[in-house]
């Protein structure tokens, strides 16, 4: 396994699998924040200590296998170019925060890209597990097992009263963020999502964009996650999140039915116009591409478009990002050059469907 393996493919192997409610829920993620008990947290730790943690993680876990997660590749961020780091962010294998602080940082990534362990981010470790569709309970079970595996060699910072101790107080307790990535085009088209977001926030959850905090809901993709980590068990957090997600799924499906019933021809026109833009454009900006891809994915889910793969949204949403485009080109590209290459790659990818 090499770094190039993670750079070459836009879509991670696990994303090719179908999951429950995958027409709306693209993925489920459990992220655990953990720290070594004997070291200061990254925000205060000396560089030598952080290097010791990085070295320990490489020596203990590089090329190791745990259950279905094989051959973890250890990648020091300082060895990567800006474009390579951006590609890993675009594939959700590392956070934007980790990409910015790379002198002592690293990441361990499983062969199927389903698990990544960010080293020396805001905490000593940020462990991420992904599953396709709505599989929060399965993801949580695997996260517990993975956490136990790590704890065989690591003494985590833990307090009997407060739980797992973290750099940021908002993560103290379980140290867990559970999240789902949802495609909600009908709720966005009918503007119902604008009324729902404040209500969701009042329940202790947060709605963000595709790359988490500070990002936009590009292509009508929203990330729903818990805000509360203290005072609730991991199971309760997941149960609360799952309850809200089920309601959003129900509302999204009803909104799709209503749009089809009230203005089906207008919706079909919107979908096929977007398909035409993707199929024939010579220049296309990232936001326009994301909007058109969202419309085409909706057309696929509604059975309006049959000749295009269900996974095309996942694949092209990464393939058309600035980092991946420049990785593909093998050089730094201007904004206009990226728009031209983006259009070309989309056309080529759609041709493969015929």
Summarize the structure.
The chain has 354 residues and is of the alpha+beta class.
General description of the model:
ATP binds at residues 27-31, 92, 126, 177-181, 208-213. It is a single chain. With 354 residues, this protein is of the alpha+beta class. It is 46% helix and 15% strand. It has helices spanning 3-8, 47-61, 82-90, 96-100, 136-151, 185-189, 192-202, 234-280, 286-301, 312-319, 322-329, 335-351; strands spanning 25-34, 73-76, 106-109, 115-119, 125-132, 158-159, 163-164, 176-183, 205-208, 221-226. The strands form 2 sheets. It has an 8-stranded antiparallel sheet with strand order 2-3-4-5-1-8-10-9, covered by helices on one side. α9 runs antiparallel to α10. The radius of gyration is 21 Å and the shape is globular.
Please count the helical segments: 12
Largest sheet: spatial strand order: 2-3-4-5-1-8-10-9
Mean pLDDT, rounded to whole units? Answer: 91
Q: Name the beta content range.
A: 5-15%
Q: Which structural class fits the helix and strand makeup?
A: alpha+beta
Tags for this model:
8-stranded antiparallel beta sheet, 354 residues, alpha+beta, 46% helix, 12 helices, 10 strands, globular
Q: What order do the helices and strands come in, and which of them pair?
A:
Layout (H helix, E strand, L loop, with lengths): L2 H6 L16 E10 L12 H15 L11 E4 L5 H9 L5 H5 L5 E4 L5 E5 L5 E8 L3 H16 L6 E2 L3 E2 L11 E8 L1 H5 L2 H11 L2 E4 L12 E6 L7 H47 L5 H16 L10 H8 L2 H8 L5 H17 L3
Antiparallel strand pairs: 1-5, 1-8, 2-3, 3-4, 4-5, 6-7, 8-10, 9-10
Helix pairs in contact: 3-11, 8-9, 9-10
């Amino acid at each position: 396994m090499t770094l190039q393996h993670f750079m070459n493919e836009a879509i991670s192997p696990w994303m090719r699998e179908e999951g429950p409610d995958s027409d709306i829920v693209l993925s489920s993620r459990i992220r655990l924040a953990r720290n070594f008990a004997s070291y200061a947290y990254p925000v205060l730790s000396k560089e030598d200590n952080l290097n010791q943690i990085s070295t320990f993680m490489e020596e203990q876990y590089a090329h190791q296998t745990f259950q279905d997660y094989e051959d973890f590749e250890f990648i020091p961020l300082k060895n990567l170019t800006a474009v390579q780091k951006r590609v890993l962010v675009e594939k959700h294998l590392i956070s934007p925060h980790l990409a910015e602080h790379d002198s002592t940082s690293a990441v361990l990534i499983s062969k199927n890209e389903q698990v990544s362990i960010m080293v020396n981010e805001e905490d000593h470790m940020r462990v991420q597990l992904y599953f396709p569709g709505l599989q929060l309970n399965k993801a949580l079970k695997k996260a517990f097992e993975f956490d136990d595996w790590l704890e065989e060699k690591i003494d985590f910072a833990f307090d009997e009263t407060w739980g797992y101790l973290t750099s940021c107080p908002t993560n103290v307790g379980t140290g867990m963020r559970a999240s789902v990535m949802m495609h909600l085009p009908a709720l966005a088209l009918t503007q119902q999502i604008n009324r729902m977001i404040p209500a969701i926030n009042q329940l202790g959850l947060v709605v963000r964009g595709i790359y988490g905090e500070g990002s936009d809901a590009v292509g009508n993709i929203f990330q729903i996650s818990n805000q509360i980590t203290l005072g609730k068990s991991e199971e309760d957090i997941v149960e609360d999140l799952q309850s809200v997600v089920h309601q959003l799924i129900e509302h999204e499906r009803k909104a799709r039915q209503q749009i089809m019933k009230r203005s089906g021809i207008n919706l079909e026109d919107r979908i096929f116009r977007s398909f035409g833009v993707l199929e024939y454009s010579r220049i296309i900006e990232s936001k326009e591409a994301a909007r058109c891809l969202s419309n085409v994915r909706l057309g696929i889910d509604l059975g309006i478009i049959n000749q295009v793969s269900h996974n095309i949204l996942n694949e092209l949403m990464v393939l058309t990002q600035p980092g991946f485009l420049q990785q593909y080109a093998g050089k730094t590209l201007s904004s206009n050059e990226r728009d031209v290459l983006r259009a070309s790659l989309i056309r080529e990818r759609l041709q493969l469907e015929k």
